[in-house]
Design goal:
The protein is an alpha+beta fold and 102 residues long. It has a single domain, classed as Trna Endonuclease, Chain: A, domain 1, CATH 3.40.1350. The chain is built from three helices and four strands, in the order H-E-E-E-H-E-H. The chain has a four-stranded mixed beta sheet, with helices on both faces.
């Protein structure tokens, strides 16, 4: 099969656009600086009053241990965390969790 590989940035833009289209907020985080904790998800979003941390990866990407640890912290605090390699994964998660139409 000859699939055009999607890069992380284009997947990220699709996700941000979708979250905003369905009435949510979505902010891009530029990590890895002196002033920010390591491993914070790429996108911080709010939908229907619920917090989401979304770590975006290209189709072959893998999250780091610190990214997974931050995701666990978000979940422990009552938020949602997912690793997304496509917009469809985000849509599926939102539907599975019953968050559509909030």
């Amino acid at each position: 099969m000859n699939h055009k590989k999607r890069n992380e940035k284009s997947i990220e833009n699709d996700i941000k656009r979708y979250i905003r289209e369905i009435g949510g907020l979505c902010y891009k985080i530029h990590g890895g600086s002196l002033y920010q904790e390591a491993g914070i998800p790429d996108l911080l979003c709010c939908l229907g009053g619920l917090f989401f941390g979304i770590e975006v990866k290209d189709p072959l990407g893998k999250p780091s241990a610190i990214q997974l640890a931050q995701g666990a912290r978000i979940k422990k605090a009552g938020g949602h965390f997912l690793i997304a390699k496509s917009l469809q994964e985000v849509k599926d998660y939102i539907e599975k969790e019953g968050l559509v139409g909030l």
